[in-house]
Amino acid sequence: MLRRVISLLLLALLLLPMGTAHAADNKQGLLITPIREFLSVDAGKKVESSFTVENLSSRPLAVGFSVQQFSVTNYSYNYTFSRPANNWLHLSQPGASLQPKQSMKVPYELDVPAGSAPGGYYYTLFASADLAPQGINSTVKATDLLYLTVKGDLTRTSKLQHSSIQRISFGRSIPYQLEPVNTGNVYFFAYASGELHGWTAKESATPDAHLLLPGKVRTIHGSIAGPILPGIYRATFGYKTDAGQSVSEARWVVYIPPWSVAFLLAALLIAGKFWPRRKAKPAEPSS
Question: Which CATH topology does 158-271 take?
């Protein structure tokens, strides 16, 4: 009986890698690279670039190429797409046929008219194909986000619309929230971070980068590592931009880790056990 169990276990271990490899072979869809581009051009000039599309499926695909402009919603920064408001971006071809595992480079040209306002313009380059059987609509899309900057008088400014931090924290970290708004005319990155000041505070973590688009408010969540001991600490949190602007806030926070509450309760119980109790007075005899 024992030999049979061992044999079954060995057989399962031998078959496991084969099943994993088979799952990897079933990868379907389109791959587009790069997924993000940053280009700068002078008004009245042209610039050429390209993206690469690869057919990851196991059958030939008719792939279509298209262009839209994109923006984001306030706070959540979900992407929204619309028809281009200009005809600056020209694809070299509307589509192509790709064999399984075949890739191709798709050139395109940006022609920015003279007198165009400086600032940021944002496009999405789409590669799309139908992967489902005939008669069933199942279109997949791969996207390349293009951040175009028209050179000139560029303004990279922001303001903090709202900020908050958890004033009383019991966990291992102290969460905070920032809502910066880009008041300039071109995108930039904001690096959010926070730290505590006190004798048992830990070092601050590496700042996180967040993209800010012109005229949009973004909600940024972050956290500060909790200190070693409970107490009242001064927290500073905010962001710095790659344009050199620094915005910060300061708050007092109370940090109470769970172990300190348990320690206090245990101390009270022990103290109550050994605390001298008053002896009850004897009852006076009734007359």
Answer: Immunoglobulin-like (2.60.40)
